[in-house]
């Protein structure tokens, strides 16, 4: 604050406190029962009674409290107050305390691998806190995801579910793109894929539809999804043989994916989180992932 505005605030604040005291004592005068000059309805007069003593004292104490507060704490322009307290100093002290506590918490986890951290209640508590602050917005508070955002609890990993792969995903982010095939397929070729891909693991699918679908799949899709349809972690292409669909399953969803493609991106967090935070949140995610009811 500039010296001018600091002086302005000081003058106005002090003047207002003095004015309040003057107003209080000015209204403390008067004789009980004395009436003023104003008359309504012939005989209704205004009494000019002084302020009750308790009320006057309460107001005076309020003004004195304000003066005492401004003497010891900042509030009068650039004056810091006799105690030297500042909100910035308080914030820095709180930050130092939190930093020391955080350092001690992470220090106790040094040397542990991510699978070990996934079994450590203290590490899981820290990891969940990091997850809720940075990841829950996309993956949900329960880590079960939503349409277009992967479920982290089902053991299905497009880029791999090893500790190293999870750390890489968090640190560097991921980008996966399926190109649109609209205009490159005939109506029959598109229909053959739609009749087959959503029902890959359905043993009741007619042989003719399976063969026609596999033929188109081998020609159009196997380069990304693999000849067996189980996807490639290097590309982040999904496994089409299970019943897990990032954007929804069924004929219509598959039709949309084939015709118009899909695009998903997870942002890198290495500039947002430090190495300790990445380790504990990776451990928490690793601990949430299950396969046949057992932790990965």
Name given to the CATH homologous superfamily of the largest domain:
Cytochrome c-like domain
What is the terminal separation in angstroms?
A: 58 Å
Helix content, binned percent: 40-55%
Mean pLDDT rating: 90
Concise overview:
This protein is mainly alpha-helical and 296 residues long. 50% of the residues lie in helices and 8% in strands.
What is the topology?
Elements: H1 3-26, E1 35-40, E2 44-47, H2 53-72, H3 87-107, H4 114-117, H5 121-134, H6 136-139, H7 163-172, E3 174-178, H8 187-196, H9 207-220, H10 222-225, H11 251-260, E4 262-266, H12 275-288, E5 290-291, E6 294-295
Antiparallel strand pairs: 1-2, 3-4, 5-6
Structural overview:
- With 296 residues, the chain is mainly alpha-helical.
- It folds into 2 domains: 3-85, no CATH class; 119-295, Cytochrome c-like domain (Cytochrome Bc1 Complex, Chain D, domain 2, Orthogonal Bundle), CATH 1.10.760.
- The chain has 12 helices and 6 strands.
- It has helices spanning 3-26, 53-72, 87-107, 114-117, 121-134, 136-139, 163-172, 187-196, 207-220, 222-225, 251-260, 275-288; strands spanning 35-40, 44-47, 174-178, 262-266, 290-291, 294-295.
- The strands form 3 sheets. It has a two-stranded antiparallel ribbon.
- A hairpin with a 3-residue loop joins strand 1 (35-40) and strand 2.
- Mean pLDDT is 90; it is low at 291-296.
